[in-house]
Structures are given as C-alpha cells and as structure tokens.
Amino acid sequence: MAFSNAPTELINCHKRTIEVDEEQKQNQFLQWARLILPWLTPGELANVSLTCRTFSQISKSITLSRSLDASRSVENFPIPFHNAVDKTPYAYFIYTPSQIIPPPCPAQFPPRQFWASTNAAADAESNSSLSPLGFDSVSLVCESDESESGCDCEECFEVGLGDGVFGCPCFSGLEDVGIVSECGPSCGCGSECGNRLTQRGISVRLKIVRSVNKGWGLYADQFIKQGQFICEYAGELLTTKEARRRQQIYDGLASSPGNSSALLVIREHLPSGKACLRMNIDATIIGNIARFINHSCDGGDLSTTLVRSSGSILPRLCFLASKDIKEGEELAFSYGEIRARPKGLPCYCGSTSCFGILPSENT
C-alpha cells in the first residue's frame, strides 16, 4: 500500500515545491518593486500603478509617504504637504539640504532620487537611496592653510547680555556689513557649538500648504520666536551664463499652468563698495523647502541673512523669523523691489502694500 501511494505523495510534494517557488518569486517581485518604484517620477508612478493590483498598492503607499515628508527624512522633522484645493498630493523635486554644484555636462545629471517611506529607504540603503545626489557639494572652505582659517576653541559661548555676540575669533564683526560669521569646518568646536546656529538643519516644524492662487507655500507648524533660524536657500550654484540661459527657459514656461521657477540671484556688496559678489542659486529642479517660500510686498515675516562660515569663500543665504510667527501662519519674504516687466506675473500676497505684480529684473 505504501508503494501504491508513492506517486500521489510525489505529486503532492511537487505541488508544494511549486507553491514555495511561486511564493519566493512573489516575494522577490515585491522586494524589487519596492526598491525600483520609489525612483519613479509622479507620471511614471501613475502609469505603473495601472498595470496590476500589486503595483497600484505599492504606488499608493509611495504617494502617501511622499506627501508626509518633502525632505525625504533628511531634516530633523518631517515636512508634510497639505492640499485642500485639488487632488495634487505633493510637489515633485529633487531634495538637497545645501548648495550643490551641477556637473559641467548636463548628460551627467542624475534625473532621479529615491523617495519613499523611511522603512523602504532603509531597505534600499545599500543602493545609496538617500546618499548624496551624485554630484559635488559646494566646497566653501579656502584651500589655503586651514589652521589659520578657523578657531581653536573647543566650544564658543555667548558673552554679554544675550546679545548674540560670541567669545570666538570667528565672530569677526562682519555683521556690520550685513553678513553673519559662524565657525567653520576647520574650527576646533563641534556641531553643537553655539556659533553654528544655521548648520544643524531645520529645527522648527513646518508644512507645505496649497492655495488657489499662489500654489504651494511654506507655513509654520508651530509657534516660532523672532530671530529663530528657519532654513537656508539650497539648490544648484550656477554660473551667471548658465543662470541667464535657464531664466530664458523659465520665462518661456511662466505662462503655462503649474510652471514656476525658483532661481534666486544674490548680490553681496563687498566692504570696498567697488564690487559685489554674485551668486545664482537655482532650486527649481533641485532644492529644499525654501523653494516654496512665497513673496510678500510688505517684506513678510522672514528676514534674509548672508552667513559665512570661518574660512569660507561663499556665504549661504539663510532665513530667520523677523517677528514672532504663529502656528499656521505663512512664511514669506520680499523677492526684491525692482519690477522690470510691467506685465509681470500677478502677485497674490494680500498685503496692504501689494503692488499687484511680482518683482522681476534682468538676470
């Protein structure tokens, strides 16, 4: 009898082997899907979600995680999207917490960035999912003798009556010409030094909210005291020639719905008064949450400050609260005073001093 049942047992064993193989293939399929789909753009993700139920479920999970944190878990707090206007769940862009230098050849430009849940990012860490973007960060430190560029302080303390003055050689008094000086990479103090206020990432809770007229905007998600650091303006550091080339492209797309540029030109007037340093930071494709800060004709509730770390060649543009900001209040600053185009883009800042059109000048 045992011999007569052997074929049946072999068949059942074969069926179980097939089922195990199919389960393993299914698990492997899901694993690869969770690693690949987070690299897709919103349009690609939407198309893939239509192919099968599994892709649809994974795509919905990715879309939800993207809407919950614009910073890809890079910052200290998640920065969620909120949209009660339409069905757009989030704004797609490549995130960088600091200035970066694009490669000289556009073909070398990495067009994608892993963006999914924290767990998925951890699973894909071996694939450099949240590693640097594949191009160089801006080297801000002078290549001369670094020992002379920084301080030897183990920690820099505030002195005086809480007036923000530090007992540190790096604090050289440049604030008189509109620049704040901080300790730099070659200083002996660590990241917790009090003279590194703008170097520890975003330390207040923020959110990105969509409105009918202005599109996405950055809002406070907690009470923010006057003088608190909000964020820096991060993006691609461009040559003036490249900035002008891109601005022509952005101007051509400006009339199309959903197209808005985030190219910012900064001019630092040198102490001699005879020259100025020009910086072109483009956060249109690659940037941080500062790209969502809208303009206000009355100056808004943010002040802009140039911050130069000790030994640095270039400063960073940082935003600080110019007054106490309530939870739920929009963050805004003035894009400038020049309006070179009488028929420029309309302004919806809503301030009593609104000019009706956004500032513009010849790049």
Automatic annotation (TrEMBL):
<dbReference type="InterPro" id="IPR050973">
    <property type="entry name" value="H3K9_Histone-Lys_N-MTase"/>
</dbReference>
<dbReference type="GO" id="GO:0008168">
    <property type="term" value="F:methyltransferase activity"/>
</dbReference>
<dbReference type="GO" id="GO:0032259">
    <property type="term" value="P:methylation"/>
</dbReference>
<keyword id="KW-0489">Methyltransferase</keyword>
<feature type="domain" description="SET">
    <location>
        <begin position="204"/>
        <end position="336"/>
    </location>
</feature>
<protein>
    <recommendedName>
        <fullName>SET domain-containing protein</fullName>
    </recommendedName>
</protein>
<keyword id="KW-0949">S-adenosyl-L-methionine</keyword>
<dbReference type="GO" id="GO:0005694">
    <property type="term" value="C:chromosome"/>
</dbReference>
<keyword id="KW-0808">Transferase</keyword>
<keyword id="KW-0479">Metal-binding</keyword>
<dbReference type="InterPro" id="IPR003616">
    <property type="entry name" value="Post-SET_dom"/>
</dbReference>
<dbReference type="GO" id="GO:0046872">
    <property type="term" value="F:metal ion binding"/>
</dbReference>
<dbReference type="InterPro" id="IPR046341">
    <property type="entry name" value="SET_dom_sf"/>
</dbReference>
<keyword id="KW-0158">Chromosome</keyword>
<dbReference type="Pfam" id="PF00856">
    <property type="entry name" value="SET"/>
</dbReference>
<feature type="domain" description="Post-SET">
    <location>
        <begin position="343"/>
        <end position="359"/>
    </location>
</feature>
<dbReference type="InterPro" id="IPR001214">
    <property type="entry name" value="SET_dom"/>
</dbReference>
<keyword id="KW-0862">Zinc</keyword>
